[in-house]
Amino acid sequence: MKILYVEISWGGHRKKYLEQLSSVNAENIILCPSIDDGIQNKQFVSEIQMHAKDTLGRYKLWINEISQIAKKENVDVVHFLCGDVLYRFFGMYLSRIEKPIVVTFHRMPFSFIREVSINRIFKKIDFGFVHTELIENHLRKMKIKNVSNLQYPCFFPSVNISQSDAKKKIGVPLDKKLITVFGAASKAKGTDLLIDALSKVSQPFYLYITRAGEDVNLDYIDEHTKNYSDCVKFRAGMLPDEDYMLALAATDIVVLPYRKGFDAASGPMMEAVWNHKYVVGSEHGTLGNAIREHELGRTFVTEDTDDLARVLDEVLASDLKISDKAENFRREIDPDVFTERNIEIYRSVLDINCH
Prior knowledge:
Elements: E1 3-6, H1 14-22, E2 29-32, E3 42-45, H2 56-72, E4 77-80, E5 101-104, H3 112-124, E6 127-130, H4 133-141, E7 147-149, H5 163-170, E8 178-181, H6 191-198, E9 206-211, H7 218-224, E10 232-236, H8 241-250, E11 253-256, H9 267-274, E12 278-282, H10 285-293, E13 297-300, H11 305-316, H12 324-332, H13 335-353
Parallel strand pairs: 1-2, 1-4, 2-3, 4-5, 5-6, 6-7, 8-9, 8-11, 9-10, 11-12, 12-13
Helix pairs in contact: 5-8, 6-11
């Protein structure tokens, strides 16, 4: 099978996500925002640098571009890895792509208009992936059948250094449990909520903040960690893979203090689970549901710093035992399982289209 993968950004985990899928077959091709030398497959740079709030005219040109490449390269399936960009225009013009269409949706907040759009999109595509059972169940209640939950995989290998050695390497104390926040900085990710909550925590701890992006506010961090300034380490910018894995190895607790506006699969949560780490996260939406259902750790009342402080005190005083259900969930996020599930769907939609 020859697949055309469509991506509009290299941000976050998108490159690793794409690389995992495309590398299975050297004939697979990619339509992307720029050439990435680390990916071996044939790449086309999109003439229409599409984004979620673009105009209808540009969106139409982008769909035409995809259609032309799919036809010229004689691909078997077109897989949109950026399905969220289709919501704005209700999946218009997808019928111009005369190939089976698979779409991966990363975020799916629901509203009346959004549900109208989602229904129209699923009628025009062959299959859609979402990353949580909660979203899949909601879609099935909307009478959408061509959908499946596919857990967001962990793309980092398990770390192979002891926790104590990792703590020594990054320069954090061995005698305190290490709380870490990973990923891009944005208001939705709630780093400020964690910083405020920790000023109310009585148990000993050490905080390691690793954040990248324009929303990193160093002045805020300095001002609001004064009460525990000797127990915090901050590193701005995107961590190289080696340093990211080192931070994971050193960590005792990964905290995901997301606000209500963030409701999507969490890469840092998957990486925490993959490396047998205890998770504390907001109770709302898909994140809270995953933590509770798979017993990955503890949840707290979203955006409530008092409740987050209470939960952290209890967790810091515990032995951080990883549950059997968390270990079972870890097997579900194996990248090889993720790849095989995608391939199964490609085969299925091709079989249906051949009959």
